[in-house]
Write a structure and sequence with these properties.
183 residues, alpha+beta, 7 strands, Aminopeptidase
């Protein structure tokens, strides 16, 4: 039996109190927030960050994991499912690599693969979807590389630097993931 939520370079686990030192710094980084969040990139204080993460406790509609470096156990980002609709077996995936030194190294891709596999094989989801802003080209390439298909567009959804950008809806079905995993 394979080990769930652990890859070659990263593992997914719970968020611990000591992780908030790092997480707070990410939420104070407006550049990070411009790619991670769909609202204006206003840095958040410690109390606001705690409130955001408190929303994940005690609910069946959301789950969040720390993305950790396997060798150091350092938190490098967060990943999870939001807006889980159990009757339809649908969830919305989100990810953010907050630690800049771990970006563009394939670790986000590894984390996404682990979470997708968990979602389909353990949670029995039928569909995993996500939203991405049109200017986040590297994320779009990443999502497409693991099998997500662009299914829709919210035109001129967000304002950044006096310019309007669309938001894309991507989806991946369980059957598509299983077929890709055979290769």
């Amino acid at each position: 039996m394979k080990v769930l939520l652990k890859g070659e370079n990263i593992k997914l686990g719970s968020i611990k109190d000591e992780d908030f030192t790092y997480i707070n710094s990410w939420y104070d980084d407006s550049d990070f927030l411009r790619y991670y969040d769909m609202v204006p990139s206003i840095p958040k204080g410690e109390k606001e960050v705690q409130e955001v993460f408190e929303e994940f406790k005690g609910t069946q509609e959301r789950m969040i994991f720390a993305i950790r470096d396997v060798s150091s156990n350092e938190i490098i980002g967060v990943i999870g499912f939001d807006d889980i609709i159990w009757t339809n077996r649908v969830a919305t995936l989100f990810i953010g690599i907050g630690n800049i030194k771990y970006r563009n190294k394939g670790l986000g891709k590894e984390a996404i693969r682990l979470l997708i596999d968990f979602g389909f094989s353990e949670l029995n989801l039928h569909r995993i979807q996500l939203n991405v802003l049109a200017y986040n080209i590297s994320a779009i390439k990443l999502y497409e590389s693991v099998g997500f298909r662009r299914e829709g567009e919210y035109r001129e959804f967000i304002l950044r630097d006096y310019k309007r950008y669309s938001m894309y809806l991507y989806g991946l079905l369980k059957d598509e993931w299983v077929e890709r995993s055979k290769v």
